[in-house]
Design brief:
127 residues; mainly alpha; 2 domains; binds heme C
């Protein structure tokens, strides 16, 4: 039989209390270092290892005017399309082909997924 004397009981209790305190501190110890999926997606959208998508497509993917210029004496505008209502397939395809105006990015599928999540869910432009 295991015999635990009073001193050992006291020690175990102390250890137990420290352990509980540690568990209680866990969320604040680890929680603050992590950013949410939404924060990550938004960060990537404005800093995707290249020119931020927001610079052309607007803060929420709503689209926008990039520049006004003259073409053969006529006023013309260069616009970036609204990208909040695209299918996932179309979004992925666009991110993997070269464009005339839009730069080519070299993003992983996971990163493109985050960007898609951001413009189609988080921004709520058309909702
Ligand atoms: C320099 C401006 C510019 C930047 C920066 C830019 N885009 Fe674009 N994007 C455009 C333009 C303009 C088009 C229309 C196609 C073209 O002419 O290049 C376009 C097209 C697209 C399309 C296809 C839209 C459709 O209807 O099929 C998607 C998706 C897209 N951009 C997403 C992004 C994402 C995500 C980023 C950031 C990683 C980004 N763009 C950065 C200008 C830009």
């Amino acid at each position: 039989m295991v015999d635990i004397n009073e001193d050992e009981k006291f020690e175990m209790k102390g250890f137990f209390i420290v352990f509980i305190l540690f568990l209680m501190a866990m969320p604040s110890l680890f929680g603050e270092d992590f950013i949410t999926q939404k924060e990550y997606a938004q960060m990537l959208y404005s800093n995707p290892r290249g020119i931020g998508c927001n610079k052309c497509h607007g803060e929420k993917g709503e689209g926008g005017i990039i520049a006004h210029y003259l073409q053969k004496g006529k006023k013309a505008t260069l616009e970036a399309p609204n990208i909040t209502q695209l299918s996932k397939a179309r979004f992925f395809k666009a991110m993997n082909i070269p464009h005339k105006v839009m730069p080519t990015y070299f993003l992983t599928a996971q990163e493109v997924n985050s960007l898609y999540y951001y413009v189609s869910n988080v921004s709520n432009v058309n909702k």
